[in-house]
Design brief:
This protein is α/β, with parallel strands linked by helices. The protein contains 16 helices and 21 strands. The protein folds into two domains: 286 residues, Aldehyde Dehydrogenase, Chain A, domain 1 (3-Layer(aba) Sandwich); 182 residues, Aldehyde Dehydrogenase, Chain A, domain 2 (3-Layer(aba) Sandwich), CATH 3.40.309.10. Helices cover 40% and strands 20% of the residues. The protein binds nicotinamide-adenine-dinucleotide.
């Protein structure tokens, strides 16, 4: 699959938007798209300007007010979703190679985890809408009340760069399953796989015109034009907390809602009764998979002091042994950071940690990797306090902090001492403790004795500055539908008759 790199460096592709069933002309500013492993340009992104965004939103509106998608049957929506699922799997090798080329995530992970998961989202929601229904209440004598879920309308789906296809596919699958149309905006850093998916969808003629639209470009131009557009009905956003706040302010002007999947700084607590090896393996995967660039990374570790020395020694040895290099190399465990700015930022965090009194256990420097790529050494630091910036800020990199603890209440308080609230990881073999601590952890998800597990039947999302809303079966329904209550009188209502005395 490495040949994909040579091919794209030799002939960078042109990425545009896709509006009303056709690829848009290359109109806006040109933005270079880079392979982070070599620093070389692999595509030219032609930014979608406000006019292109407006055409995309209008096409999406037409698609749900007239034409075959307006009121499309469950069977029709299922057929389209399954067609996307199949198309992703048929093209999995190429999509995984593009994802690796554009993000630097090891090919072993994009091919085996991210791309199959992107496909699975479409199958999951196709199955969910077959079973899903409204509710009927008959408890009040003389009345029947119905709760139905109607499509919310035109959805704006804005995604991040760290798992571009998988995370945005989840939004597309949910939005389309519940009968909406969408305008998708990938990160300007990583547009390749979604662009390719739209080419495949177009070639196979899966959706009627205007149901799925793609706009590409910077947040300040294309993203802002989309989230501030007066005719969208909601935004489903995954990305940074500050961007989420900006989008919410734009939505507030139109009294509209947004589902926000934002940042995290998740605690991973290893109790003294944990299975040592399982906790060690889980802590490593939870901090370093996906080059450590995961919203749900459990990279703020708390280790019980009774075996802290042993854990620190083993953890440090394994971090130093992580294989950094070309993400197309099957042996590679850690690829490059997404760009030079992110690489420099990680190194600055290691320096600030040292300045604040933390101890460097591993890494903290640039790594040779490939020439001109943005590689850093996987990093671990022993922190003296949870107040350090390396324990409070989302570094979004292969960078773990470790603190030790003695007391359960104290560690729960420290775990909760964060402006984020995405995930809490617990490692213990004591069931009562697991459930007691899980109840005390202030996050949207708690994972017990497992790293990075997601289950679409449950909801995933954060509290505090980690977000608003939950993605998953019923969470996505809440996000992408309007709940309507219809109350029917079954006999003449027993109510006062106003004006009856005349
Ligand atoms: P980002 O906020 O920089 O960008 C995300 C998207 O928003 C991009 O498409 C960008 O172009 C767009 N954008 C930027 N400004 C905008 C504006 N004013 N209006 C509309 N759109 C705008 O985030 P990122 O750096 O791409 O992603 C990393 C962040 O995403 C991390 O904080 C990470 O934790 C978070 N994330 C969260 C989850 C989750 O499920 N909670 C999952 C993955 C990533």
């Amino acid at each position: 699959m490495k040949h994909v790199r040579e091919q794209f460096i030799a002939a960078p592709i042109h990425v545009t938007g896709y509006v009303d069933g056709a690829f848009a002309a290359a109109d806006g500013a040109d933005i270079p798209v880079t392979d982070p492993a070599t620093g070389k340009q692999v595509a030219i992104l032609h930014e979608s300007d406000a006019d292109t965004v407006d055409r995309a939103v209008r096409a999406a509106r037409r698609a749900i007010t007239s034409g075959p998608w307006a009121g499309a049957s469950v069977a029709a929506r299922q057929k389209a979703l399954i067609a996307v699922h199949d198309a992703i799997l048929e093209n999995a090798d190429e999509l995984a190679a593009l994802e690796t080329l554009n993000t630097g995530i090891p090919y072993s992970q994009t091919r085996n985890i991210h791309i199959p998961r992107a496909a699975h989202n479409f199958k999951f929601f196709a199955e969910f809408i077959n079973q899903d229904g409204g509710e009927v209440f008959t408890q009040e004598p003389g009345y029947m009340s119905l709760v139905t879920y109607e499509p919310i309308g035109v959805t704006a789906l804005i995604g991040p760069w760290n798992m571009p296809l998988g995370l945005t596919a989840m939004k597309m699958a949910g939005a389309l399953a519940f009968g909406n149309s969408c305008v998708v905006k990938p990160s300007e850093l990583t547009p390749l796989t979604l662009y390719r998916l739209f080419e495949i969808i177009d070639r196979k003629g899966i959706f009627p015109k205007g149901v799925v639209n793609l706009v590409n470009g910077n947040g300040a131009v294309t993203g802002n034009a989309l989230s501030a557009h007066p005719d969208i009905d909601m935004v489903s956003f995954t990305g940074g907390t500050e961007t989420g706040a900006r989008i919410l302010s734009a939505l507030a002007k139109g009294i509209k809602g947004g589902a926000m999947e934002l940042g995290g700084k998740s605690a991973s607590i290893v109790f003294d009764d944990a299975d040592f090896d399982r906790a060690l393996d889980g802590a490593l995967l939870g901090s370093f998979m996906n080059n450590g660039q995961m919203c749900l990374a459990g990279s703020r570790l708390f280790v019980h002091e009774s075996f802290a020395d042993r854990f620190l020694e083993a953890f440090t040895r394994r971090v130093k042994a992580l294989k950094v290099g070309d993400p197309f190399d099957p042996a590679t465990e850690i690829g490059p950071m997404i760009n030079r700015a992110q690489m420099d930022r990680v190194i600055r965090y290691a320096e600030s940690g040292l300045g604040e009194g933390a101890t460097l256990l591993a890494g903290g420097r640039a790594h040779d990797g490939l020439k001109d790529g943005f590689f850093i050494e996987p990093t671990a630091m022993l922190a003296t306090s949870n107040a350090l910036s390396i324990c409070q800020d989302e570094i979004f990199a292969p960078f773990a902090t470790i603190q030790t603890f003695r007391d359960e209440d104290d560690v729960v308080a420290r775990a909760n001492d964060s402006r984020f609230g995405l995930v809490g990881y617990l490692w213990t073999q004591n069931l009562e403790r697991a459930l007691r601590v899980a109840a005390g952890i202030k996050t949207g998800t708690v994972l017990i004795n497992t790293p990075i597990m997601r289950d679409l039947r449950t909801g995933f999302g954060g509290i505090r500055q980690s977000g608003i809303g939950r993605e998953g079966a019923k969470g996505s329904r809440a996000m992408f539908t309007e709940m309507k209550s219809t109350i029917i009188a079954l006999e003449a209502p027993k109510m006062p008759k106003l004006g009856a005395g005349a």
